[in-house]
Specification:
alpha/beta, Ribose 5-phosphate Isomerase B, Chain: A, five-stranded parallel sheet, 5 strands, globular, binds D-ribose
């Protein structure tokens, strides 16, 4: 484990929102590791998604937040990695349920879909909600196997 429990990544479309979320979390005492991209220059989201997701799957980090234009490309790529449960979220209820029932370990946001304030609310709720386990445990195992 590193000193960080949260890793964040984005492509060019998500760069500005990623920067704002990192700053927002830092002000709350949460330091997220920034895995790039580091500018608005065009780049390929699958590269970022694979790097970030692999590091979560390897247990280097507990959770990740990935941001692209819609969150969709990041989630499709992230879910290719065994052990990753990535959820694209654009409302606060789904943010909560993706943790409670699905034990999502990657949150995907669309910078062109959600505004900054909603994104911050989603991140807060997602980071603070816990997996309920119980009847959901078996279903997560089914996905894993
Ligand atoms: C980049 O233009 C855009 O396609 C990407 O950020 C993402 O939305 C893909 O799902």
């Amino acid at each position: 484990m590193t000193e960080f429990s949260l890793i964040m990544g984005s492509d060019h479309a998500g760069f500005e929102l990623k920067t704002k979320i990192i700053k927002y979390l830092k002000a709350k005492g949460i330091t997220a590791y920034d895995a790039g991209t580091y500018s608005t220059d065009s780049c390929d989201y699958p590269v970022i998604a694979q790097n970030v997701s692999q590091r979560v799957a390897n247990k280097e980090f507990e959770k990740a937040i990935l941001i692209c234009g819609t969150g969709i490309g990041m989630s499709i790529a992230a879910n290719k990695i065994k052990g990753i449960r990535a959820a694209v979220v654009s409302d606060t209820c789904s943010a909560k349920m993706s943790r409670k029932h699905n034990n999502a370990n990657v949150l995907c946001l669309g910078a062109r879909i959600v505004g900054e304030e909603l994104a911050k609310d989603i991140v807060d709720i997602w980071l603070n909600a816990s997996f309920e386990a119980g009847r959901h445990e078996k279903r997560i195992e089914m996905i894993e196997n």
